[in-house]
């Protein structure tokens, strides 16, 4: 008896699948899982692209601050000199990351963690050894949440 019921269910599924509620449930589960995995994959791809294209996005958003006119000799200042200049200008801040772009026309950027003030990104001219700009991300909110006040504060060039 059990074999004939299974056989009848299989025959019904094979010949008229739209009449069974199993097909509707399987289609619904397939649709929900496909949409959620597709949304997750889209978010992963978008954030990965933002990370990979960070220098290009910065050069578009910052404009002339992030671009240099390369000199003929293409020599840059030593990294230690730029590091020391950033430490001298931003006392009490810890350098968390340094972006040294391979393109000769892009400035170097240093991410700083300043406890009372928040996060600061400093842009250094790697040819003339000058401080090009600062972007300050202020910490505010009851739980210390980060609110970005995007503004390019141009400073006077500081020679080494």
Structural class: alpha+beta
Number of domains: 2
Tally of strands: 5
Task: Kindly estimate the percentage of residues that lie in beta strands according to DSSP.
Answer: 25-35%
User: Major sheet: order of its strands?
Assistant: 1-2-3-4-5
Rounded mean pLDDT is 75
Q: List unreliable stretches of 5+ residues.
A: 144-160
The backbone outline, from C-alpha atoms, is elongated
The biggest sheet, with number of strands, parallel, antiparallel or mixed sense and barrel status, is: 5 strands, antiparallel
**Rg over C-alpha atoms, rounded to the nearest angstrom:** 28 Å
Order of helices and strands: HHHHEEEEE
Give the helix level as a range of percent. Answer: 40-55%
How far is the N terminus from the C terminus? 92 Å
* Contiguous helical run count: 4
Describe the model.
With 160 residues, the protein is an alpha+beta fold. It has a 5-stranded antiparallel sheet, with helices on one face. The termini are far apart. The chain is elongated. The protein is built from 4 helices and 5 strands. β3 (118-125) and β4 (130-139) form a beta hairpin. It has helices at 2-15, 21-52, 54-62, 79-89; strands at residues 94-99, 108-114, 118-125, 130-139, 146-154. It has 2 domains: 2-52; 64-154, no CATH class.
């Amino acid at each position: 008896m059990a074999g004939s019921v299974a056989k009848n269910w299989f025959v019904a599924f094979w010949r008229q699948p739209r009449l069974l509620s199993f097909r509707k449930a399987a289609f619904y589960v397939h649709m929900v899982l496909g949409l959620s995995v597709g949304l997750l994959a889209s978010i992963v791809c978008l954030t990965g692209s933002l990370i990979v294209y960070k220098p290009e996005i910065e050069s578009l958003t910052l404009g002339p601050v992030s671009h240099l006119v390369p000199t003929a000799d293409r020599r840059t200042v030593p990294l230690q000199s730029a590091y020391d200049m950033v430490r001298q200008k931003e006392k009490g801040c810890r350098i968390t990351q340094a972006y040294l772009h391979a393109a000769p026309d892009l400035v170097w950027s240093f991410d700083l963690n300043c406890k009372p003030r928040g996060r600061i990104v400093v842009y250094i001219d790697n040819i003339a050894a000058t401080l090009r700009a600062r972007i300050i991300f202020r910490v505010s909110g009851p739980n210390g949440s980060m609110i970005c006040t995007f503004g390019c504060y141009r400073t006077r060039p500081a020679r080494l």
